[in-house]
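Board notes (copied after class):
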Amino acid sequence: MVNLAKLNFAALDIIGKNYLTWVLDTKIYLEAGNLGDTIREENISSSQDRAKATIFIRRHLDEGLKREYLTVEDLITSHMKLCGDTITEEDMLEKNFSTFHASNMLLQQQYRARGFTEYNHLISVLLVAEQNNELLMKNHQSQPTGSVPFPEVNAASLEMNATFFGGDNHK
């Protein structure tokens, strides 16, 4: 049986930089645990085996990907299924664009203009943008606009040398 309690290899990074190795590692590990069929389309695996594979895969995803996947995709698909609609990539993209706040209409237009054709690609780009925005906000909070800048290392070093050696004209 597959040990689901620990990571067996690096989790899929939120921006997907390790995607190819992650896919290969996942396929190999699932095959070794007799769960390889669970990730193939139209498989006849038991629901228990599919659940084991899903748990394993989720444990090897970045926390941000897990959260975003569960919140956005599940909400969109469950809502559209309740309406009796067949869900396509275009529907999911459109539904996501329509959830942008009114104050972010320019961003919505910019993301539409990029011509995303895959929902997962849009979500990964939005997650990276969210992380970058959080980093910018942390940087701004630590050094707000208009505050005194950090002293330059070289400038501080020059001042110290000038004081220690009694001026700039030392030899």
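Comment from the instructor: Residues 1-5 have pLDDT under 50 and may be disordered. The first helix runs from residue 19 to 32.
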